Amino acid sequence: MKYIYIYDTTLRDGSQSEGVNFTVNEKILITEKLNDFGFDFIEGGWPGSNPKDEEYFAKIKKIKLKSKVVAFSATHMKVKTAETDVLLQKVLAAETKYITVFGKVWDLHTRKILGVSDSEALDLISNTIKFLIKNKRKVIFDAEHCFDGWKSNPKFTLACLRAAEGAGAMNLTLCDTNGGSLPSELGKIISEIKKKIKTPLGIHTHNDSGVAVANSIIAVENGVNLIQGTINGIGERTGNANLNTIIADLQLKKGMKILPPAKLAQLTNLANYVYEIGNKRPKNDQPFVGKNAFTHKGGIHVSAVAKIPASYEHIDPKLVGNHTNITISELSGKSNVIAVAQRLGIKIQSDSPQIREILAQVKDLENQGFYYETAEASFALLILHSEKDYKKPFELQEYCVSNSSAGGVDATVEVKVKGKLRKFSASGNGPVNALDLALRQGIEEFFPQTKNVELTDYKVRILDTHSATAAKTRVLIESSNGKEDWKTVGCSENIIKASWQALSDSLEYAIWRSGKKVEK
Questions:
Q1: Of 46, 152, 267, 312, which has the most beta carbons under 10 Å away?
Q2: Which among 50, 88, 51, 44 has a CA at the least distance from the CA of 65?
Q3: Predicted confidence band at 419 (pLDDT cuts at 50, 70, 90)?
Q4: Helix locations, 168-283, DSSP H
Q5: Domain containing 437 — which CATH number?
Q6: Half-sphere exposure of 519 (CA within 13 A, CB side)
Q7: Rounded average pLDDT over 290-307
Q8: The domain containing residue 347 runs over which residues?
Q9: Reported confidence tier of residue 520, pLDDT bands at 50, 70, 90
Q10: Total-model pTM
Q11: CA nearest neighbour of 85 among 36, 44, 128
């Protein structure tokens, strides 16, 4: 079986994604994580283009790694020689054994943008690679805009590839830099190039046409042995080829050994790790590793998955470190209720008439504007409230919110706790904060487990904008006790009431959850 090299460019090409700005230490952390996974090549950055990358290479060379750290560079400037090009000197100073050099192979760029003749363009490629090899470096040549160039002038693009090959490049990586090629044409071009080039080929695709992963897979089927991409597909514009998906596809669909099974089973963790380091919100609908990749909402689907997971899951989620997730909505059926209740630690009999009552209530409430798919804590309470032996820890009697003279908000709540009515007031920097503080005063004495509960997120959505100020409002609150997170929902034409519903659900759930264990 042919070996496929995985070349990660998250730290260089991925950092061009909007909103991503890795620090030096973050780049080192990601490098160590990728090394732990056994990636073949890790492109650390472009020394000479910015001080941060120079610092990265100065530090990373002191760390022992199995993966090959690669420095990135362009061909030398047209007004200089390779020997006198300052940027190439800085690339050599990074002291990496491997250097990736990109060169223009589309005549549009060489003639109109660089302003060089065809022969000068070939010299830029050849001279740069020879210079680096003379300095005992191994060179990967990135043929920038290769596919657009081939479609425009295949003779010139082939000449560029042959110049890189003749200069001694160890790999010619064909780049779909604009992301405009479709799999059928890309595969055909690679096949044609492979007949004329003996040097091993690589592939580097962008996702502007939504087919970066497909193009990478097609490239492998047409003989390339090196794939460049980024974790989570981050990158400029619409992103680079997503290595998470490519690795899983090649290993689980094509039978190629890319990662040891134990490492493949950590793929979801790797994806989330890079999201967290890059300060980006995870894409829940990402294949294989996304939260929704194995989420089932429709009742028919859930019923089938409960019997035979493969009926609606194309792989075992555990192979990539993910898991099946059942959600609740107006589309749910009996199997959804049973599955979610079990995960939450609520015992419910599969033949209980309670299930149909719960489903009817969910459908009615969601029709009103509630949303239980993410607010599982509120759904748990909906189940508990349907049980005869469940007693609410507290019950709201009334509340009042008003602006305070000090510029904040005053809130008064009257709650029934342990059979007694209790009234408490508090001031906050907003109505929700004030209600939260007032409610806690009333119940913390009896339920100390609520002291550690914090409101970590608060989202408001107007459901029927045509109703203007009379529109229904949905409030989603996320809470945490430091060990577990949960979400609750409220809905009303009155935003304060909707907030109260979600807030009180959050604290009631925290009380009930004490001692419970959620199944993953």
A1: 267
A2: 44
A3: confident
A4: 183-196, 212-221, 243-248, 261-264, 267-277
A5: 3.30.160.270
A6: 12
A7: 78
A8: 295-385
A9: very low
A10: 0.73
A11: 128
